[in-house]
Design goal:
The chain has nine helices and eight strands. It is mainly alpha-helical. Helix 6 runs parallel beside helix 8.
Length: 273
């Protein structure tokens, strides 16, 4: 048991160390360029890297090495590659990939929370596999919606562009109807949009009409739904036993036994000494 846990911790730590070194190097480079916003993102990334360790030490929940690696890579891809490396703008599908993965990961976490409660002797409840899968799906979608609230708030109050804008060739709106009736006015084949500022100057947006984040938000929620559904199905079959111990276990956190908690305490104490 002790050797197995020791090897498990060692394997999980390699990914964390490699990514942390890269983040530190990026942080130093950005600091030398006086790019303090990127420095803040690097510090935030290093703090987020501590989440799996916190969950392990404080909550006594073991994250499978595959799940922990995906979480760390997700954080790195979102903050370092996406924000600092501008992958969000250079690679069109980058944001879509991350939101799909987020739906999958949040469903896994939601599933684990319910599954742990379901198996705990302290809670006198027994939930059916389909209900556990449904709760995992709802948990994932709730996290996705809350994140979109956060993106909107940042864009609205700090004028960032987390909800990525895009150019669209047509407008369909009742607001443009001069009669005030609930009938849409459609403007198609838009080639450019001219914006008149308060001082009388104009700004031309070539390529169409600028959609302010609505399409991006709905796309993010849609792919979050796909990721949530995929894991919810995997979790359902995990509970009923078809994939138990094979694929699903690589992504489902497990509550540590008393023996595992004690062994990890001894290993940490030995490491400090």
């Amino acid at each position: 048991m002790k050797t197995k846990i020791k090897n498990h911790i060692k394997r999980k730590g390699i990914v964390n160390i490699v990514l942390s070194v890269i983040v530190v190097l990026v942080m130093v480079a950005r600091f030398l360029r006086a790019d303090y916003y990127s420095v803040f993102l690097c510090i935030l990334t290093l703090a987020l890297f501590y989440i799996p360790t916190f969950v392990d030490k404080r909550m006594h929940v073991t994250l499978p090495k595959e799940l922990e690696a995906i979480i760390l890579l997700f954080i790195f891809s979102a903050e370092i590659l996406g924000e600092i490396g501008s992958f969000y703008t250079h690679i069109p599908w980058w944001d879509t990939m991350l939101h799909t993965l987020n739906g999958f990961l949040m469903a896994a976490i939601g599933f684990a929370l319910i599954d742990i409660l379901n198996d705990s002797p302290r809670f006198h409840i027994t939930m059916s596999p389909i209900f556990v899968a449904f709760v995992a799906f709802c948990f994932s979608m709730t996290v996705g919606v809350v994140w979109e609230f956060f993106e909107f708030s940042m864009d609205y109050f700090t004028l960032t562009d987390m909800q990525k804008d895009r150019l669209v060739p047509a407008i369909s709106s009742v607001l443009l109807n001069p009669s005030g009736l609930n009938d849409t006015i459609i403007i198609e084949n838009i080639k450019s949009t001219t914006v008149t500022l308060a001082d009388g100057s104009t700004q031309v947006i070539n390529g169409g009409y600028l959609d302010i984040g609505i399409i991006d938000t709905m796309k993010d929620l849609l792919v979050n739904l796909i990721g949530a559904v995929v894991f919810s199905v995997i979790g359902y079959f995990y509970i009923i036993g078809r994939n138990k111990g094979v694929f699903a276990k690589k992504f489902i956190p497990q509550l540590q036994t008393k023996e595992e908690i004690e062994v990890k305490k001894q290993l940490r104490k030995k490491k400090k000494d």
